[in-house]
Amino acid sequence: MMNRFDEEANGLKEQAVNSQSAEQDLELQQALKNFKSCVHAWGDAMYSLPRTVSKDVRLRSWRLALGWALGCVLVAGSVSGGLLERHHRVEAARIAAEQRAAEQQRKLGEQQAAKMSDEVLLADVDSDVSRQVPSAMEPLAQMMDETK
Amino acid sequence: MAAGTALDAMAITTADDAAAQEFARVVETHRPQIFRFLLSSTRDVDLAETLTQECFLKAHRNWGGFRGESSAMTWLMRIAINLQKDHWRNRRMQFWRTTRTNSVDLDEASDWLPSGESSIEQQLLAKERVKQVWTAVKGLSERQRTVFLLRYVEEQELSEIAAATGLSEGTVKAHLSRAVARVRLELGGKR
Predict the structure, then answer these.
(1) Do B86 and B109 share a domain, yes or no?
(2) What is the ipTM of this complex?
């Protein structure tokens, strides 16, 4: 008797579960059908809609173009600035090196000139000293030699 | 000889004209469906329009190579799916653009449900259910979404979906089953 009751209860439970499942399936089917109708209606409406570029999209395009242009200018500016700076440095280093070389050259020249002038002077003195004494001054020269 | 060349040229022109006319007919017939599929897949009207144009441009270029092994619709759908895949792949590469999309939100997408003859309460309930389906579709993988939309929106056969996606029918079934399970969960979970 008890078993029969249990069987009936189980049967009812199964029926309830089945009916619930069927209800869910029905709901799913309906939802999918509505989803399809929704997509079809949306697609049809958008398909027949005339295409215009919205102000927002145009504005965004301009902003994008402006951004790119500014970016390019910045990059070009920094690259050319860097190159210019490098060129200046190289030029300044070259001029400084040239100046240093010229200065060295000048000093060397001066030293050589100074050396040369001393030698010339000595030679002059020598030549002056060893100049032939006129005959009238001969006795005086002899006296000077004797004094030495 | 000259007459023969002229005749050949005329025959070629006629064949070209016929092919162009046939392609124009294909565009007229299938363009709305391709656009609708891309719209439902991307939820972006501009993107769907762009991809549709690209799809038909590509189809026009390769129209001579179409041998009719599958239907024109399946062939076009395959092109559209590949273009969409390429688009998302390129977008992922352009990491600075990933945050910005023009996709409409789910509420707006659900607003297009035709009212029919039901009561306001039923309409609201139906709209809510449609929104839940959109939510589930949004959460699907790209492949699952494609298969789901082709089956339940475009009402294509499994064999057609398999041909359009390049998957086997078994794989299509598996993807479809997972997609439906996801939708079922979304509908059941929000009750």
Answers:
(1) no
(2) 0.83
